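Let's sit down with a protein and look at its sequence and fold side by side. Once you have written the record down, we can walk along the chain together.
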Amino acid sequence: MKQIYLLYCNDMKELANRIAGRINSITLCPIEWKRLPDGYPDLFLPWIGGLHGEHVAFLASFSSPAVIMEQLSVIYEVPRRFVASFTLVLPYFPTWTSERREEEGDIAPSFTLTRMLSNIPLSHGGPASLVTFDIHAMQERFYFGDAVLPCFMSGLPQLKNRLRKLPDAHNVTIAFPDEGAWTRLHKQFKDHDKFPTIVCTKRRGPFGTNCIVQLKEGDPIGRHVVIVDDLVQSGSTLIECRKMLAMRGAARVSAYATHGVFQNMLWVRFNYDNNLGPAHGFAHVWITDSCPKAVEEVSGVPPFEILSLAAPILEALYISGTNYSKYAPIV
C-alpha cells in the first residue's frame, strides 16, 4: 500500500480530511495560500523538499476563475520536484455550458481549460493523472492531450449505495429529467439493482424562460421517484420535473446531482416535503461534496444530504488495491 502525499486548496480541506481519515497511508500537506498586494498569488510549500520520489496528489476546486491561477501554480510546480507520480483530483470540472458554441467567433473556455491541464509537466514517473467526476459535456472527454491521463469517474455508485438503505428501496424508480441526462447516465443503472426508469423531456418558452417538463416514458404512479442528473445550478428543471411527477401520481419525489453548483444561493428554491407528499417539495436532495461552498451552505438543511466522494477518490488514487466496496459512502 503506497504512501500518498495529499495537497489541497482551502476549499477542499474538509474533503481532504475525510480522505485522510479513512486510511493511514495518506499524509496531508497544507499550503500557505497568500496574495501579494496586487492580487497575484504568494504561495509557500513548506514540505516541498520531502517529496522527492513520493506519490503526490493535489485536491483542487476551480470554484471561480479567480482561484484557478494560484492552483495552477501548484499543479505546474510539484511534478517538477522529482516526485514518483502526480495526480490532480478535480471533482467538478467547470465551464460545463461553454461547449455550446454555435456562432463563428465563439470561444469555448472548456477547451481552453483542458489545454491548460494537458500541459502539466511530466513527473519522474511520467504523465500526470487527472481525476474528475461526471463531466457534463461528453465531448470534453476528448479535449485532453496525450501529456495527461484523464480518469473519468462517477458519483452515482454513492447514490445507489444510499438508495439501497432507504426504507422504501424496493419502490424506487429512477427518473432522468431530459434526454441529455438519460444519454449520459442511464447505462450506470443497468446493473443488478434494476431500478425502473422514467425519461422526461423538457422545452423552454420564449427567450429561454418557463422550463416545461413532460413525461416521455415510464410510470411514476405510487413510486418513490428519484430524479438523477450530473449537476444542478438554478434547479428549474428538477423543480418542474418534481411538480410534473407529483401530478402524475408519484408517492414521493427526491433528486440527486453529483455537482450542486447553486450559484447565488439558488438552493433555497428546493422545498422540503416534510412527509406531506411531492406536491409540497422533495423528500431528499442528494449532492456530493464536489462543490464545497454550496455544501457548506446546505449542510443540515432539509431536504439536502451530502454523499462524500472520499471513497471513490481513494479508489482513483489506487490506495486500497483491493475491494472498493469496503469504503462505504460518508454522509
About this structure: The first strand starts at residue 4 and ends at 8. The radius of gyration is 21 Å. The chain has two domains: 4-154+311-326, 156-308. Residues 320-331 have pLDDT under 50 and may be disordered.
